[in-house]
Amino acid sequence: MSDVIPDEPISRFWSKIELVADIARMLREMPASRHTLVEVLNKISEVIGFESGSLFLINERTDALEEVAAIGQKINLLNFLRLGKGFGLAGWVAEQAQPVMIPGRSPETSGAREHHDSVLVMPLKVEGKVLGVICLGHRNPDAFDDKRQKVLEIVADQVAISIERIISHRDLEAKNRLLIKAQEELKDAQKQLVAQEKLKSVVELAASINHEVNNPLSAIIGNAQMLELDMEKMPTEMATRVKAIVDGARRISLITHKLLKIDRLVTESYLNGHGDNILNLHESTGEEE
Question: In CATH, what class is 10-178?
Answer without folding.
Answer: alpha beta
